[in-house]
Structures are given as C-alpha cells and as structure tokens.
Amino acid sequence: MLKPGDAFLLPKPDEDVSHLWIILTAADPETGRVIIVNFTTRRPHSDTTVIVHPHEHPFVVRPTVVFYADARLVVLSDIEAAIQQGITKLHEPMAPALLKRVQEGLLRSPHTSGKIKAAFQKYCEKGLV
User: Fold this and answer.
1) With a threshold of 0.90, does the pTM exceed it?
2) What digits encode the pLDDT tens for the residues 44-83?
3) By the 8 A CB rule, do 3 and 24 touch?
4) What backbone torsions phi and psi does residue 35 show, to the nearest 5 degrees?
5) Is 81 helix (H, G, I), strand (E, B) or coil?
6) Is the dihedral of CA 76, 126, 21, 107 positive or negative?
C-alpha cells in the first residue's frame, strides 16, 4: 500500500508531460481517499510557497514548485491500480524533511483550495499525516 511521501509520475489530461505527484496523507479509512500534489517547473507566475531544488529529489533537475492550486483528493486504490496497469509508475519517495515542507506548505499557500485545506486539517486530526 502506498503511503505519505510516495511519489509517482502521471501525465495530466491533454498534456504530454508527466508530472511528479506526491501522496501527502495516509488513506482515510472511511473513504479510501488521499491528498496528492504535483511538482512543476518554476515559472515567473508560480506559487513559490515551497520551492524544490535539484538536490532534494532525483526527479527534480531545475527549480521546481509545488502546484498547490491543483492539489487533489483521490482514491488511493485508483492510484495503485494505475501503477499495476502501467498507466503510471512509482518514483523515488520524498525524504521525510521534504515531505514535511510540502505538507506544511499546503496550509500556507494562498493557492490551495479551501476544500483541500479543510480536508487536510481533518486528516491531521485523524492522525493520517
């Protein structure tokens, strides 16, 4: 079973480029859902709440940011099925310090939706972070 800090490559719909997605929470036992975010190349208009540098993860080769505006609640078993089917593939997990920065940034970013922030706080209360 996948856990917080695990990372996987997945293309966004209608895009050729795969992004690195990170699982931020354990699965909620009631819904099976986790919160995920993705890394994207830093641009002039990017949310710079959390900047990831090349030495912090093998996938990162240039200044990168966490795209909190695109954070999602997804069913963990769907990700696991996509891995088994070869639709996506696992990548090296996040180091604990980087995972913690990304998790903390989710609540600090002005671009994280209120729905995702509220869900993350509930996951924290349940001990799923």
Assistant:
1) yes
2) 999 999 999 998 999 999 999 999 999 999 999 999 999 9
3) no
4) -105, 130
5) helix
6) positive
